[in-house]
């Protein structure tokens, strides 16, 4: 549920900016509880159905709904938790950014991060959970974010772009071959508008196979290959940009939880559980590895269901001990 903002200067020195939802482009809601929460968010303008992308998006950008849910929480962001430990006062946290400081004590520790990353932190306290976490298969994704000069030579760029989007440009392309699996025009999503730039903003996700084959390639090389592929796709619609104004790539090492290969399913497969909670240690784990069949379009739903169930269990435990 990530969005990245990019800005650049044009030849006249004028600054432009646009946004790219470079993580989950949209998400589906099948479970009644998640659907109800989502419809409530939709009524409050925090989410919208996106027909072209099949599913829902948060508004005006992907992190907005979660930010709203966290309103009033005392957050410490932009810190990587490097180490956690526990003493008689509770849980303590050390971050990579401030290795000499410790944060805490906390009553409860919840790990809601990709399973492989959670394994290292939980291992000293629940080695059995760490072992299960390491069995979760994760699929990486290389993602391109690109903004191009619209394929028109005269007139107001913003207007031309808006008209272009309506008349010619598809909002979603699903290439049948080549390195790209999915191409999305970000500014055609609900509530994004053209962000006032007039530059069509594209997010393109590489296929699983291409990503795995190029996982460790230098970012510059990946950027070149994906940009060429994107230009090729847009050319088919007569919409290749006159020039690229901005292009960057992001490597999601743990983008999606993949189904376990047939015959190798772990006995304690997390997809059949809602979350993990140990009331004695006051520690829990939640995320998209739990709560369902690991279909790629329902990762957000699984994370929401799992987090909600863990929250219920934590609150029940705290109520019992207060
Ligand atoms: C390219 C892409 C396409 C996707 N497409 C879809 C889709 O179409 N539909 C769908 O439903 N889902 C999709 N997903 C998956 C969806 O985004 C995830 O399933 C969902 O976001 C998982 O939520 P989570 O809360 O479990 O974990 P995350 O969203 O991974 O959140 C975990 C957070 O913890 C942070 N973190 C990790 N380690 C640490 C640490 N040590 N200290 C501090 N912070 C840490 C991470 O930076 C991250 O912000 C896609 C994901 C990607 C990347």
Description:
With 322 residues, the chain is α+β, with helices and mostly antiparallel strands. Helix content is 28%, strand content 26%. Helix 3 (115-122) packs antiparallel against helix 4. The chain is built from eight helices and 15 strands. The protein has helices at residues 32-43, 64-69, 115-122, 127-134, 157-167, 208-213, 219-235, 299-321; strands at 4-9, 15-20, 47-49, 56-58, 81-87, 90-95, 103-106, 109-111, 137-148, 172-173, 180-185, 201-206, 244-258, 276-278, 283-285. The protein has two domains: 4-67 and 138-257, Polyamine Oxidase, Chain A, domain 2 (Alpha-Beta Complex), CATH 3.90.660.10; 105-135 and 260-321, 3-Layer(bba) Sandwich (FAD/NAD(P)-binding domain), CATH 3.50.50.60. The radius of gyration is 22 Å and the shape is globular. It starts with a strand and ends with a helix. Flavin-adenine dinucleotide is lined by residues 1, 23-27, 80-81, 112-114, 117, 141, 143, 205, 252, 255-256, 287-288, 296-301, 303.
Hetero compounds? flavin-adenine dinucleotide
Mean pLDDT: 90
Helix tally equals 8
Give the class-level CATH name of the largest domain: Alpha Beta
Shape: globular
CATH topology of the largest domain: Polyamine Oxidase, Chain A, domain 2
- Give the H and E element order: EEHEEHEEEEHHEHEEEHHEEEH
Helix content: 25-40%
* CATH architecture name of the largest domain: Alpha-Beta Complex
Proportion of strand residues? 25-35%
What composes the largest sheet? Answer: 5 strands, antiparallel
Question: What is the strand arrangement across the widest sheet?
Answer: 10-11-12-9-13
Low-confidence sequence ranges: 153-167
Q: What is the alpha-carbon Rg in Å?
A: 22 Å
Query: How many beta-strand runs?
Result: 15
What class would the helix/strand composition place it in?
A: alpha+beta
Tell me the domain tally.
Answer: 2
C-alpha end-to-end distance: 35 Å
């Amino acid at each position: 549920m990530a969005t990245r903002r990019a800005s650049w200067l044009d030849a006249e020195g004028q600054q432009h900016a646009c946004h790219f939802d470079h993580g989950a482009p949209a998400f589906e809601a099948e479970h009644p509880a998640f659907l109800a929460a989502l419809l409530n968010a939709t009524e409050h303008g925090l989410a919208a159905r996106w027909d072209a992308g099949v599913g829902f998006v948060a508004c005006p950008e992907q992190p907005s709904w979660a930010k709203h849910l966290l309103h009033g929480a005392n957050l410490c962001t932009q810190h990587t938790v490097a180490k956690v430990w526990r003493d008689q006062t509770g849980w303590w946290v050390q971050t990579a950014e401030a290795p000499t400081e410790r944060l805490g004590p906390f009553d409860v520790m919840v790990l809601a991060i990709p399973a492989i990353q959670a394994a290292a932190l939980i291992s000293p306290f629940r080695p059995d959970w760490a072992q299960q976490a390491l069995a979760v298969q994760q699929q990486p994704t290389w993602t391109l974010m690109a903004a191009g000069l619209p394929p028109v030579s005269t007139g107001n760029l913003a207007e031309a772009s808006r008209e272009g989007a309506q008349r010619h440009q598809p909002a979603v392309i699903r290439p049948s071959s080549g390195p790209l699996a999915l191409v999305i025009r970000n500014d055609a999503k609900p509530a994004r508008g053209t962000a006032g730039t007039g530059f069509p903003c594209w997010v393109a996700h590489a296929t699983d196979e291409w990503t795995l084959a190029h996982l460790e390639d230098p970012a510059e090389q990946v950027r070149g290959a994906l940009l060429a592929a994107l230009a090729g796709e847009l050319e088919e619609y007569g919409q290749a940009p006159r020039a690229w104004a901005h292009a960057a790539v992001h490597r999601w090492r743990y983008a999606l939880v993949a189904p376990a290969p047939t015959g190798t399913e772990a006995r304690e497969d997390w997809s059949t559980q809602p979350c993990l909670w140990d009331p004695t240690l006051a520690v829990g784990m939640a995320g998209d590895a739990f709560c369902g069949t690991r279909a790629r379009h329902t990762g957000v739903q699984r994370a929401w269901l799992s987090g909600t169930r863990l929250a219920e269990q934590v609150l029940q435990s705290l109520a019992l001990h207060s």
